[in-house]
């Protein structure tokens, strides 16, 4: 996954029209995942250059848009909530290098998103038990 992320980063950097009119960077999106943040529905977008969290039903700016190099920790969290649905309670915690934290709750595809973030980050990661 890290080799694919590095390859995609180099390809995107070589494209002459990689900047959009609003100054943001056009990037390949690897996955979009439904989450809940602060009791509101949202989605986590994992791209080749960054990870973005946005609310689903609001036309506001993203809650965060972190380049992979700005991510310090990514942690899987499990909560058991049998009354909602058996596979609920799969959360993902993202901590930035500036020590800001976001807990994304009831995340669909949490394991895939985690793998993509780790793979695309180009950092050496350590598994803690």
What does this molecule look like?
This protein is an alpha+beta fold and 129 residues long. It has a single domain (2-120), classed as PH-domain like (Roll). Helices cover 19% and strands 36% of the residues. It is built from two helices and seven strands; from the N terminus they run αβββββββα. It has helices spanning 2-14, 110-120; strands spanning 29-37, 40-47, 50-55, 64-67, 71-78, 90-96, 101-104. The protein has a four-stranded antiparallel β-sheet with strand order 1-2-3-4, with helices on one face. It has a three-stranded antiparallel β-sheet with strand order 5-6-7, with helices on one face. The longest helix has 13 residues, at 2-14. The chain is globular, with a radius of gyration of 15 Å. The relative contact order is 0.21. Mean pLDDT is 79; it is low at 16-24.
Question: Could you give me the name of the CATH homologous superfamily?
Answer: Pleckstrin-homology domain (PH domain)/Phosphotyrosine-binding domain (PTB)
CATH class: Mainly Beta
Task: Please give the radius of gyration in angstroms.
Answer: 15 Å
CATH topological fold name:
PH-domain like
Envelope shape: globular
Tally of structural domains: 1
Q: Write down the overall mean pLDDT.
A: 79
Give the topology.
Elements: H1 2-14, E1 29-37, E2 40-47, E3 50-55, E4 64-67, E5 71-78, E6 90-96, E7 101-104, H2 110-120
């Amino acid at each position: 996954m890290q080799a694919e992320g590095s390859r995609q980063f180099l390809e995107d950097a070589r494209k002459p029209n990689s900047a959009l009119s609003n100054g943001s960077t056009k990037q390949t999106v690897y996955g979009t995942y439904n989450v809940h943040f602060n009791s509101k529905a949202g989605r986590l977008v994992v791209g080749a250059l960054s990870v973005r969290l946005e609310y689903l039903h609001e036309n506001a700016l993203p809650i965060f848009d972190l380049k992979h190099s700005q991510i310090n920790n990514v942690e899987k969290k499990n909560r058991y909530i049998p009354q909602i649905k058996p596979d609920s309670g799969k959360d993902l915690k993202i901590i930035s290098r500036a020590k800001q934290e976001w807990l994304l709750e009831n995340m669909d595809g949490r394991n895939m998103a985690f793998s993509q973030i780790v793979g695309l980050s180009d950092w050496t990661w350590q598994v803690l038990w």
